[in-house]
Write a structure and sequence with these properties.
The protein contains eight helices and three strands, in the order H-H-H-E-H-H-E-E-H-H-H. The chain is globular, with a radius of gyration of 23 Å. By secondary structure, the chain is mainly alpha-helical. It has a three-stranded antiparallel sheet, with no helix packed on it. The termini are far apart. It has a domain of about 180 residues.
């Protein structure tokens, strides 16, 4: 079985996403662009031109797949924190797929009671979150690496982009007490040679921060609580301008500056 987007869906109508998140996303992006000086007519022509060069998707859009991907990390977080699924040392138990005791199926049903458990298990396999040894499964890490599966990875990207745009729109022209977290630290002249070191520091610190934040949210979560609930999330990401990491060679400006530096050093030694 393949965890295609139409299979990965939350059947809960109480916590369903908006009917068409693609329309919401396009609306938010168009609003941001036009309010910052871009012509709506030109944007429409550019978007139409871009879409003409793209192929039709193999599977139709399922709005519920977005929240299914949003919730996958919650399964892993519970596996690493719920005493029912931990051994005496506090490590995650190796779980069978099904059974009378703790199992992956019971874990998913506990965390996502309205989800398709088979599709969730398959999605966790596809992103290499679980590995089978014998008749049991173990988690590979507390965090999920969505880049291992292209469709799920893009859906994860949509969740981050949609969440960011919603927050930006919400915060504009609102009093300080009514805004949501939206902070950034940007250095306009960071040396390319230190990028690998800095990105590793970001990842290490973000992993600790996000696990602590997730733990604080889990303390307040009560599956049996009939009260109103929402999805609450906090995201951390790094960006480069221009994007350099993973690209072959150095950017032209970096190569030119290094050439000038070498020429200057030679001139001083003469």
């Amino acid at each position: 079985m393949s965890a295609t987007p139409e299979k990965l869906k939350d059947r809960s109508r109480e916590m369903s996403p908006r009917a068409d998140y693609s329309l919401e996303l396009l609306t938010l992006m168009a609003r941001v662009l036009t309010l910052t000086g871009h012509s709506p007519g030109k944007l429409a022509r550019q978007f139409q031109s871009i879409c003409r060069r793209l192929k039709e998707p193999e599977h139709p859009c399922d709005p519920f797949s977005l929240h299914a991907v949003w919730d996958l990390p919650h399964v892993m977080a519970r596996w690493h924190s719920d005493p029912q699924y931990l051994d005496s040392r506090g490590a995650p138990l190796a779980l069978p797929l099904k059974g009378p005791g703790p199992s992956i199926t019971s874990l998913i049903e506990r965390v996502l009671p309205h989800a398709d458990t088979e599709a969730v298990v398959e999605a966790l396999r596809q992103v290499d979150a679980i590995r089978r040894k014998g008749g049991r499964y173990r988690p590979t890490a507390r965090q999920l690496a969505f880049q291992h599966q292209r469709v799920i990875g893009w859906l994860h990207g949509l969740t981050m982009l949609l969440g960011l745009l919603r927050t930006v729109e919400h915060n504009i022209a609102r009093p300080e007490g009514a805004t949501l977290l939206e902070r950034a630290a940007i250095n306009p002249r960071f040396p390319v040679q230190y990028l690998p070191e800095m990105h590793q520091r970001f990842k290490d610190r973000a992993g600790t921060f996000l696990w602590q934040a997730d733990g604080e949210m889990r303390k307040h979560e009560k599956p049996s609580d009939p009260g109103h609930t929402v999805r609450l999330g906090v995201g951390v990401f790094a960006f480069e301008d221009p994007l350099t990491t993973g690209r072959a060679g150095r950017p032209p400006k970096a190569r030119a500056s290094r050439s000038r530096a070498r020429a200057s050093r030679k001139a001083r030694t003469r």
